[in-house]
Specification:
The protein is built from 3 helices and 6 strands, in the order ββββαβαβα. It has helices at about 50-60, 70-75, 125-140; strands spanning about 20-25, 30-35, 35-40, 45-50, 65-70, 85. The protein has a 3-stranded antiparallel beta sheet. The protein is α+β, with helices and mostly antiparallel strands and about 140 residues long.
Length: about 140
């Protein structure tokens, strides 16, 4: 009785049999790094698939993978703060696309886009523009 080990795992919880197909990516030092995903609630999770066919159905045929048992996957993930392992996820969201460059605003066809004579000139509109124009006209007459 002294050497009795109690397994705290839920016996009804399905456990994958055998090593998992775990997606990886090439690391900066040349080795493989685990690819982590996010759950629908945004929690980071390690991912494993029970067959290569299931992995390629979700992540594509170009996805690199390694074989790891679930306890090994958990052991590698936990020091990185990832405590959840998802087995055979059904779908993933596509990677975010790069933002498209915004087209440049077309310039007025009557004048160039940048007027070198207008550098440093205050742009005035509305009633203030009419007053500014009247004052400039009076100064022109008196000069």
């Amino acid at each position: 009785m002294d050497n009795l080990v109690i397994d705290e795992a839920d016996p009804d919880e399905p456990r994958p049999a055998g090593p998992l197909f775990v997606p990886v990516r090439l690391g900066s030092a040349g080795g493989h790094q685990l690819r982590f995903m996010r759950t629908p609630l945004g929690v980071r999770t390690a991912v494993g698939f029970t067959s290569e066919r299931r992995l390629t159905a979700v992540l594509g045929s170009t996805q690199s993978w390694i074989r790891l048992a679930e306890p090994a996957l958990r052991a590698f993930s936990e020091p990185l703060g990832v405590t959840t392992v998802t087995v055979d996820p059904q779908l993933t969201a596509p990677a975010p696309a790069a933002p498209r460059p915004t087209p440049a605003e077309p310039s007025c066809s009557r004048r160039p886009a940048w007027d070198p004579e207008a550098v440093g000139v205050l742009r005035v509109t509305g009633a203030a523009a009419a007053m500014y124009t009247a004052v400039a006209a009076i100064h022109g007459i008196l000069s």
